Amino acid sequence: MFATIPQSLKSEDELANRRSMLETAPHIQSLEEWRADYASTRSVSIPNFDPADAGDQARVLWLLDQPPAAVVASDGTGFVSVDNPDNAAERCWHERNEAGLCDGVLMWNMIPYFVEGKATAGDKMAGIKALGPVLRLLPRLEVVILSSADVQQAWKTSHLGGRVPRATVLDAPGVGRQAMSRNAMQSKLSNAVHRAKRIVG
User: Fold this and answer.
1) How far apart are CA 126 and CA 104, in angstroms?
2) DSSP string, 111-124
3) Which of 100, 139, 190, 192 has the most crowded Cβ, counting Cβ within 10 A?
């Protein structure tokens, strides 16, 4: 389910609908069970997978750095979502919309929790360890988009690629304001998303 406008989770009705889907959407249950188990071992908030995404049927996994503070705040959406009411999510929405990559995508983060300041080596290792079980829950995965230099480094210096040896891995810039301030970075992001669409059809 791909929203027709960006930042759709600004709507309280849409946010309530998305939260109700967490308990009923079959494609998200295995991932949410993992998330709940993982969250029980952490002292920080772990946002939910978006049930509007493809869940365990995903053919494309788009990995960002970490959830923004606003998402995990008490008044945040609580979702890793292309529909979040922030500029980075809107950038992802536009790229997917323009490429026609509306279905079969799961948005997630290399570090699954918000880090105040610069992520430590421990945070990065925790993210790598957490992502392994997520990859095992994505049997149809064909493409992984690594969106930022930090995400790319974590992937390439770990065992993660071996978990999905048949998947095409695409490097892309981050989607934050600083990264997107240069036209060359915007083009690289667009090229990666369009290539993902060509691969999955």
Assistant:
1) 26
2) S-S--SSSPPHHHH
3) 192
C-alpha 140/C-alpha 124 separation (Å) is 26
Residues counted in the chain: 201
Q: What DSSP state is assigned to residue 188?
A: H
> Which residues, at least 6 apart from 109, have a Cβ–Cβ distance to it below 8 Å?
63, 64, 65, 66, 67, 80, 127
- Taking the whole predicted model, whether its pTM rises above 0.70 is answered as yes
DSSP H helical ranges for the chain? 12-21, 29-39, 69-72, 87-99, 121-136, 149-156, 160-163, 183-200
Write the pLDDT tens digit of every residue in 69-119. Answer: 999 999 999 999 999 999 999 999 999 999 999 999 999 999 999 999 889
Beta bridge partners of 62: 107, 145
